[in-house]
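Customer escalation, tier 2.

The customer says the design service returned an amino acid string that "doesn't look like it belongs to this structure." They asked us to rerun it and document both sides in this ticket. The original structure tokens are below, unchanged.
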């Protein structure tokens, strides 16, 4: 490519940054699902005309979720620095990026879970109730299995969102490809590094989307 000096690229740094991004993505996605799934289920159960319908509780929980979702992620990174330091001992690097990643993505995933559960045929739930199924049997054996394709799609969307969040965490030294792009591509005007990091992030998003679509198709056929 004209004007590009590929010798300026330290491929070892690119490899390390890619590994850091994958680590942040994997760990934060795991915690996001662990926290966001029950939160989404609870939102669904408390909503009107559902099994645990409670207008006040639903409104309160929905307000908290919406408040967290409304904060721009860059602002959330800064606001959570004291909490992050208490949890993991640092606010920079891979470890320092994970708590804000989870806090930013879990409410988003919870809303997607709630929407996926709303797609389950109400008649299936009512039939389970008529057969004497308990609340947790309905959740574990009816709602979640029936909503599996939607939940997998929600996980894919969340994973792709987390990729963009990991890139933004580079603003406060969060590590990964975003940090590399800011330190070298932006601050030192090394366009070559910027191009490589952007291409790496694009490839990661494409792979995540293709893998997620494949899982959804398999779940739908069952």
């Amino acid at each position: 490519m004209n004007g590009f000096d590929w010798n300026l690229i330290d491929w070892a740094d690119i490899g390390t940054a890619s590994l850091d991004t994958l680590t942040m993505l994997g760990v934060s996605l795991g915690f996001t699902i662990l926290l966001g799934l029950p939160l989404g289920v609870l939102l669904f159960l408390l909503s009107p005309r559902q099994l645990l319908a409670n207008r006040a509780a639903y409104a309160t929980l929905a307000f908290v979720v919406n408040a967290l979702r409304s904060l721009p992620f860059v602002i959330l990174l800064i606001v959570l620095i004291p909490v992050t330091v208490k949890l993991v001992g640092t606010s920079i690097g891979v470890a320092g990026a994970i708590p804000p990643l989870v806090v930013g993505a879990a409410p988003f995933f919870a809303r997607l879970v709630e929407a996926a559960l709303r797609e389950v045929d109400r008649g299936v739930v009512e039939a389970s109730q008529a057969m004497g199924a308990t609340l947790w049997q309905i959740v574990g054996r009816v709602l979640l299995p029936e909503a599996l394709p939607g939940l997998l799609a929600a996980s894919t969307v969340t994973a792709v969102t987390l990729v963009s969040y990991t890139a933004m965490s580079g603003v406060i030294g969060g590590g990964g490809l975003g940090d590399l792009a800011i330190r070298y591509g932006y601050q030192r005007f090394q366009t070559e590094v910027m191009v490589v990091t952007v291409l790496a992030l694009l490839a990661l998003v494409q792979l995540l989307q293709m893998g997620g679509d494949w899982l959804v198709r398999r779940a739908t056929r069952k």
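Tier 2 assessment: The sequence is consistent with the input. The CA atoms of residues 109 and 155 lie 7 Å apart. The mean pLDDT is 90. Sent an explanation to the customer and offered a walkthrough call.
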